[in-house]
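Example noted here:
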Amino acid sequence: MDSPNQKKPHGTSSTTTPRTVLVTGAGTGIGRATARAFADEGAHVVAVGRRAAPLAETAAHAPSRISPLVADVTADDGPETIVRTVLDRHGGIDVLVNNAGIVTTQSLRTYTRAAVEPQLATNLLAPVLLVQAALPAMEERRGVIVNVTTSVGQRAWPGNSLYAAGKAALEVLTRSWAVELAPLGIRVAAVAPGAIDTPIADHSGLTPEQRAAIRAWQLDHTPLGRIGRPGEVAWAITQLASPQASFITGVVLPVDGGAVVG
């Protein structure tokens, strides 16, 4: 029998007040689908991205629930500015989704500092600093952090090892933060997408032929035999962040059609 003094479950700021959700990289793909999925649940969503036009398209799905915020998560004052804006708009943060990510065509033989630093700044350092900036607000709401990694981070990815390594590091942070932040009432989890139909590769510098070759390789290594949809990853994110998942923390959930085990 539950004790009458039992603490409120993690990720349940209120049973009546809509939650406030912050999603980075929300202009396209998984970020857009996630922002819309939370809005469909009734949450207030702040959709963060670098470009105004894609964010406006994301927000058009539910203008009263999704507010765009043009900001660079890698800027020196980016994390503090983003958190301050969310608090000014909604007074708190219940869920933080670290989704923003970039991938390049560089490989071990061609890496330069100029190519390495932006990728690590977006995929690894930005989530660290954004979580740090949001901690006081999230502790107050007993919030949930969901990091978006990649299933390839659990396997070898020759030719694109830096992207996989940065996302694998984010998974280590997920498990570590889950333990570190549990006493504050904050849950931390991650989803690890496999091959998903998003435009992330469109900005990588790959030719259409190269992108087609990668897709063919991904299909060959996905037991379910198809490319995933952004909405399928968004569903996993919303489920991990839901009050019903209040006893789940530190988990990394593959959403990859079986690629990790195939």
